[in-house]
Amino acid sequence: MERYTNNEITKIEKDNKSSLILTTPFLIWITFFFLIPYLIVIFYSVLTPGVYDIKFIFSLESWKAAFSSSYLDSITHSLVMSLLTTIITILIGFPVAYVIANSSKRKQNLFIVLIIIPFWTNFIIRIFSWKIFLSAQGLLNNALIYFGLIDEPLMLLRTNGAVLLVMVYVYLPYMILPIYSVLEKFNYSLLEASMDLGANEIRSFFKITLPLSMEGIFAGSILVFIPALGTYIIPQLVGHQSSAFIGQLITFKVKSIPRNWPLASALSFILLLLVAVILFTGYNYYKQGLRRK
Amino acid sequence: MTYQSNIKRFFDGFNIVIFTLILLFLYIPILILIIYSFNDSKIISGWSGFTFKYYKILWENENLKNAFLNSLLVASISTIISTTIGLITALGLENRYFKAKKFIQGIIFLPLVMPDILMGISIAMLFSFLRFPMGRMTVIIAHITFCVSYTIIVIQSRLKGFDHTLQEAAMDLGANKTKFFWKVKFPIILPGILAAALLAFTLSLDDFIITFFSTGRGFNTLPIYVESAIRRGSVTTINALSTIMILLTLFITIISKPIRKMII
């Protein structure tokens, strides 16, 4: 690395001006289409709703409404469901990642491809396929009736259970892949050492394998929890109207007439704050973990 | 393996059972969809014989064809632009003495962790604020915005392995900076650029929610069309459409492997 010091190339490398020029298009793009839009969200949240659009009159009504019990319930519901999704994907994803990481190199590649292929199928279609499978006349109900386990079709669709199932289905690869990438580099001689020192398998698992794979579990949890928190289409297609996610309520406020953009903005801002808090706490926790290592 | 024991064997067996069940879990819904797309029945219960009629209905559906072409158009344009921006940004960030590097790296990270719905809402509000009519243009802008961070990161990871002594060597041999870039550096990082483009293309094709917020009346991409068809209840043709899309994905996966090998 240091071998270019005092070299002519170092001067070129150090040329901050060209770096600035090269990164400017990105910075302009992201400022205009990513950062400024969030300022507009904040600005819109203190305005007055019109039927189709927005009236530029200051009002705090949308913030009052956002903190009413129905919206807080929806936020709690989203948080609980996302947390459950994260926990279930950890419990299922870990053994899967473990099996893949412990296979021969050729099998590893095959297994990873097998996990990823369904993931490349269009997002909407993956959710839709569960809607078909779980519907009253769907295959699952027909099979259960055929085997005499039930008489009447079960109400599987439009339940929280269905939402949870599909969320786990959709977000599972995001958990498996980071855990796999950590376990793949795992040094198994550590386990042998711990057993030589008299620890049994269970103790070794909790003292060595699990702590060392925390980094992957952590990354996977962020990748699952945050999109799950903002999900709209999954509860919309397989969930029940009475337990709406915050993403659904925001969408209704923007997409259905009469529109209420200020309320949608206030709710979006609350969701944004939640995401920021989660990322910040997670990041601090992660840094602490690194220090302890 | 000195540490093999009954508990260990039990855990391994348990893990393999879970692994097999998960593979079933991942594939069963998709397989059902494919099988039902050939089912000659109006409702989705039971099997009433083999048919290709839904494929024929699909073929004659002009709205669907338009949505498909729109998807390809949006994905192509946003891939080209986001990969170009991604490439030059990644090149700019290669300089480790660049003062703003850490700051920009942080900004790149933001769109990756933002829930889609927030990105969709905020960009919809921007265009509403600017009174800019929503449609093809706004969808393309939104797609570039969510693709660009991914392209930067993929290209950066390829640049990380780049051997900088090559630059010294090329310059000693009389190449100038431009010639060095096009003759040496670009061919070496090309696989990374193509991987970034492929990722951007698939992300764009797959996106529903950001498109949902950034499109206006009359401009549908394929996922938008599929969602509205599900809402209208025309379920059987969706099965056929899904099957085509799944086979298309498989096809791309299979052909991309030899192409990747050819490049690398």
Gist of the model:
The complex is a heterodimer of chains A (293) and B (264). With 293 residues, chain A is mostly helical.
Q: Would you mind describing this structure in some detail?
A:
The complex is a heterodimer of chains A (293) and B (264). Chain A is an all-alpha fold and 293 residues long. Chain A has one domain (69-292): Orthogonal Bundle (MetI-like fold), CATH 1.10.3720. Helices cover 75% and strands 1% of the residues of chain A. Chain A contains 13 helices and 2 strands. Chain A has helices spanning 8-13, 16-44, 61-66, 69-101, 105-120, 123-134, 139-146, 160-184, 189-196, 201-229, 233-238, 246-255, 261-292; strands spanning 48-49, 54-55. Chain A has a two-stranded antiparallel sheet with strand order 1-2. The longest helix of chain A has 33 residues, at 69-101. Chain A is globular, with a radius of gyration of 25 Å. Chain B has 264 residues and is mostly helical. Chain B has one domain: MetI-like (MetI-like fold, Orthogonal Bundle), CATH 1.10.3720. Chain B has helices at residues 6-36, 53-59, 62-92, 101-113, 116-129, 136-160, 165-172, 177-206, 209-214, 222-232, 235-263. In chain B, α1 (6-36) crosses α11, α6 (136-160) packs across α8 (177-206) and α7 packs across α8 (177-206). Chain B is globular and about 75 Å long. Chain B starts with 5 loop residues before the first helix and ends with a helix. The model of chain B has no long low-confidence stretch (mean pLDDT 86). At the A-B interface, α1, α2, α4, α5 and α6 of A face α1, α3, α4, α5 and α6 of B.
Q: What is the number of beta strands of chain A?
A: 2
Write down the CATH class of chain B: Mainly Alpha
SS class of chain B: mainly alpha
- C-alpha end-to-end distance of chain B: 37 Å
CATH architecture of chain A: Orthogonal Bundle
Query: What is the highest CATH level, the class of chain A?
Result: Mainly Alpha
CATH fold assignment of chain A: MetI-like fold
Order of neighbouring strands in the sheet with most strands of chain A = 1-2
Largest sheet of chain A: 2 strands, antiparallel
**Residue ranges of chain A: pLDDT <50 for 5 or more in a row?**
none
Q: Please tell me what the overall shape of chain B is.
A: globular
The major beta sheet of chain B can be summarized as: none
- Count of structural domains of chain B: 1
CATH architecture of chain B: Orthogonal Bundle
